[in-house]
Amino acid sequence: MGQLQGKTAVILGAASEGNMGQTIARLFAREGAKVMVAGRKEGPLAALAAEIAGEYALCDISKKAEVNAMADKAAATFGRVDIAINTTGWGLLASMEEITDEQLDQIVDLQFKGVHHFLQAFVRVMSAQAPTGGSLISLSSATTKAIITNHAAYIGTKRGSEALIECVAND
């Protein structure tokens, strides 16, 4: 019996081959969890869900309605959500002079607003499971503790999301 036997998990950001989301989903399934993978690419998500005998949901973390629908689908499918993990991110590596307004909007939508959508949706779902609740995990980056050339937008949004996560954990 695995360490996660009887648990349910949602892994957001599991649509790219070999990424952290897929790795976590495979590990959790091996450990006995019922897993729903989510992301923006249906083909890879469907294949991974079939491989791990899980479920999948299409979801763009930058779209609040899609994140809410994914959280609701997971709760309806499994009856509860014990663990929700956000592994999404985009390595926008460019100098300040090169970053366009569109790129800045995209990285803020993904790495800050998206994290807010994720936390808000799963706090709502897990609060309804009181008194047991659940565990929320949102991956960030070790680079937030460094100053690296051409990483301002990336590190800035990741640092902002870390502050958001800490505030939600405190609440």
Could you describe the 3D structure shown?
The protein is α/β, with parallel strands linked by helices and 171 residues long. It has five helices and five strands, in the order E-H-E-H-E-H-E-H-E-H. Strands 3-2-1-4-5 form a five-stranded parallel β-sheet, sandwiched between helices. Strand 1 (8-12), helix 1 and strand 2 form a beta-alpha-beta unit. Helix 3 (64-78) runs parallel beside helix 4 and helix 4 packs parallel to helix 5. The longest helix is centred in the middle third of the chain and has 27 residues, at 101-127. It is globular, with a radius of gyration of 16 Å. It starts with 7 loop residues before the first strand and ends with a helix. The mean pLDDT is 93.
